Amino acid sequence: MNRRRKWTWYLTPGLVFQSVLIGGGYGTGAEIARYFGSHGLLGGLLGLGAAAAGWAALCAVTFEFARVFRAYDYGTMMRRLLGRAGILYDLCFYAMLLLVLGVVNATAAAMVHDLTGLPPGAGVALLSLGVVLLALRGTEAIEKALSLWAYVLYAVFLLFLAAVFLRFGDAVAAELRRGEIGPGWLSDGLRYASYNLICVSMILYTLRDLRTRREAVARGVLAGILGAAPAVPLLLAMGSGLPAALASETPVTAIFARLNLPWLYVLYEIALFGTLIETAAGFIKALEDRIERSLFRGRSFELARPLITGMVTALGICVSTFGLTELIDKGYGAICYGALLLFALPMLTAGVRMLRREGRR
Predict the structure, then answer these.
(1) pLDDT digits 0-9 by tens, 191-216
(2) Domain around 282
(3) CA–CA distance, 132 with 78 (Å, rounded to integer)
């Protein structure tokens, strides 16, 4: 394995994790403002560090668990970890699936309407078409698409941050000098990490070529860092006008209104729209892997895949009618506790004990 390919191999799970994670409220800045910006710029950066550390620890243990027990889909992993209680995690995943699809559809509707003036339904239709086409391409195509688009996203985010610093760099620096660290930055950072824990269990298909514990841990730590990395330029950009960003339903749009760079706004929206497609397709793929492994067991799944993809996409459209802010504020909170109790805590306790026992054998 040459050096370039080896680095790509190490980064792939993290890039896929980031692509699944970043849709909807993350990419528009809504989640970043709510859970990090509300604690001040410095407090928000500390909260992001806490979220990255939490993801890195769980990813490292989960990746090693998947390698040792050859659990490359979340259903197999949960049966091994929780036994019959694994069905409870299924319920948690289904709720998160519908919520995330609702968020990305609501975001797509608002994006296309703001950008083109077309009815919100046009954005939903375009997103749904992209999701269905990607979800039906199969594992290899999804993994490659999520990995490659992550590079596009990083490039656009960094370009956005550079534009903000050139125009409002003094304001961002002044906000950093204030050194505001609002109370609750640690709990909100860990809370944000906890309700996105389900995304960790969705990317197990990228780990089939793991060979050693060292590789599993290294790829897990990188995944945690990459998951939080895109939020750093978003949060720093919000520092140019934090009160206005916190008051907006889509803070990034508010920042672009002050920048007055239409070409960059269009570029950002295209990058984000592609990520919304990836997020939805990633969740649908995880569901289809679960159904294929538990119900079909070697029988052909190709006829059922389009039906499941279409049905789940339609359900996501229905959920999106609740609105973006309502979904983020009320939906994620309940699910985060389920993911914490059914996945994170068992994996970091019982899962670690199981790995030690296997190591002694």
Answers:
(1) 888 878 888 988 898 898 888 999 99
(2) 12-356
(3) 27
